[in-house]
Here is the input.
Amino acid sequence: MSTLARALIDLGAIAHNTTLLARAAGSAGLMAVVKANGFGHGAPQVARTAVANGAAWLGVTSLREALELREAGITAPILMWLYTPLDDLDAALLNDVDVSVNSAEALESLAAAAERTSRVAAVHLKADTGLSRAGATAAEWPHLVTVAAKLQTAGLIRVRGVWSHLAHAEDPGDPGLHRQLDVFATARAQAAEAGIEPALIHLANSAALLQIPQTHFDLVRPGVALYGVEPVPGRSFGLRPAMTLEARVILTKRVGPGTGVSYGPDHIVDRETTLALVPIGFADGVPRRVSGQARVSVHGTRCPIVGRVAMDQMVVDVGNLPVSAGDRVVLFGSGQDGEPTVADWAQWAGTNAHEILTGIGTRVERVHVGEDVRITSWRTAT
Ligand SMILES: *Cc1c(COP(=O)(O)O)cnc(C)c1O
Here is the structure.
């Protein structure tokens, strides 16, 4: 099979990261966050690997993502956390998908879905503890838990979780973090007063899981760390990046000083050199703004992307390296062979690794490899 660019997903790295995170979670369970197609790594493959290596739960954003996992035959518990009040949630109940709840109105529509489907809706009540996104505010919370207790007594819903999300877990001394923990404690106490004693209290994302044990409670929800990105700037916990993004050269040319490269041109060659055309561009998730900063690995040497990144292609200045059509170009990988990592790309693009990983386009083929398979050559791999 021929493909212009592809992402190799090392499921061995996912397994390693899951094991490491499960250990760091101590007695708390692990929810592998596989939203956005497993941060671009392939949700079913990541989910299966995570579950086989210690994840008890899977977390996704939408109903569609949850159903995709069920269709792939995955039976582990799933929590989904974003939908509109108008969504028909019968499919969630019929497929054993737990639903996050922000409001009393959402509880009523879940109760209606429970009546229609003859199922009990398993819900996780979400408290807004300071992020001002999803969740009920401190003012709304007492009403939410009162309605939840009533519907639970009526046998229509079961409150399985009470949860929230942190605004900033990178700095354990952050005062905002401690304010959030206080608001969360109050929310839990009010839920208990209303007669709600959920099995699962959960709050921590990757950074909180790895460095703030008092956020662990019953379940932790790592996302980016599962994929091998270190979540705390300046600290390394031994995670292994799972994705290698690569393409192969389709054309090279020898050019002299004064040659303009790509649109504009923004880049003028200042010496005799070899330019390599690489068929991956911003439609595939290479940020347009990295031109002039980003480097890619060619034969183990870091070479600059020159000129503007186009929709489908970009140009790499490989100097005097003996590069020819068909040669492999690594945009990012584990870093073990000197290639850039996704963290380098995030820095070049002025964003986070989450945005780079989830921005990899659908045209890029995902190839999953197991723990023991080490791909050295493009041709032997597929
Ligand atoms: C995305 C997400 C996570 C995972 O966050 P990371 O910082 O990637 O670990 C956890 N919880 C919720 C609610 C999320 O939306």
Residues 33, 35, 81, 165, 205-206, 221-225, 231 surround pyridoxal-5'-phosphate (CB under 6 Å).
